[in-house]
Amino acid sequence: MAAECQEKRGEEEAQPRLPDLGFVRDKLQKFQSKMLTDFEQRLSCMVEDVLQDLRQRELRAHEFPNFERSDRKSTWHNRVTSQAPADVSDATNGHANGTHPRPPIQSETSARKQRRQLPEKVFVARESYLTALLQVEHMRTIYHIFYIILVMFLLNVICYDYFVDGRFDLGLGTFRGGLRRLHWVMGVWLLEHVFVLALYFAFRGWALVRHKLKPHSSLQRFWSHSCLILYISSQLVFCFVSTSLCLKFNLPFVSACVLLLESTRLLMKMHAFVRYNAERVLKGKAKNKMRRRRKTPVGDPLCRR
């Protein structure tokens, strides 16, 4: 009997223990409830996004019809839109599963260079957003309300100056105080324009030297990188000098705003000039169509075809 009990006990220990079915059932139920909750949340978010898109389209179609116009003449295309990728079945070397053969090393390097090129700008005349907004009745109503508030403030100032002070000031003292030391602002503004004009000759010198160093690629790259560092340093110095002069001359608020905003405008002008013409110099394009018709010197990279 003892031997039979030991054999049965050994057989029971040898058999694998089955997992608890209740524990597995609880885990499956929790997993099912979690999946259903996640699915309901995602579905509700998608439905809410679709409804929000429909509400926005209806609002633009009824309240802001000018933004829905697809006229090419009234649209600004800031960049040339890239074409959609062609279908695999239309490709000459495409495969049925959508895979493509590995391109050679030269094609990869050329594609990398094309990605590094700056996109070409296309400017088209368009209406401003304020012009389109003011064509809406609700926006015109708000615009007229601001007009009335301005007129009421003006009448309040006139009546107060006449009945209290016995004269008409119209708050001109504020303008006189804010525009003090305006002659210093004009002087700094003229010096900034001289700096902007000097940038053209510096850029032209960079292009000429770069064209002469064309046989020596390493020297050409070193020259371009050095000029780039000098250009960035000059822009930083330009911003620093404008700000420091505002503090040195102790300019009032309005005069300081005039100087700083004008400095920002000139800084953006310089960046736009360098950004646009640097690409033309690197590609060797002509400066404009009129220059192409004229007889251009061979050594000028800005006027070369």
Task: Give your account of this protein's structure.
- There is one protein chain.
- With 305 residues, the protein is mainly alpha-helical.
- Among the domains are: 31-62; 136-170; 176-303.
- The protein is built from 10 helices and no strands.
- The protein has helices at residues 2-14, 21-62, 105-116, 129-133, 137-165, 172-178, 182-212, 217-248, 253-283, 289-293.
- The chain is extended.
- The chain starts with a helix and ends in a 12-residue tail after the last helix.
- Residues 70-98 and 286-290 have low confidence and may be disordered.
- Residues 77-96 have a biased composition (Polar residues).
- The chain crosses the membrane at residues 142-163, 183-202, 222-243.
- InterPro entries: Oat_ACAT_DAG_ARE (IPR014371).
- Its main location: endoplasmic reticulum.
- It is found in: Endoplasmic reticulum membrane.
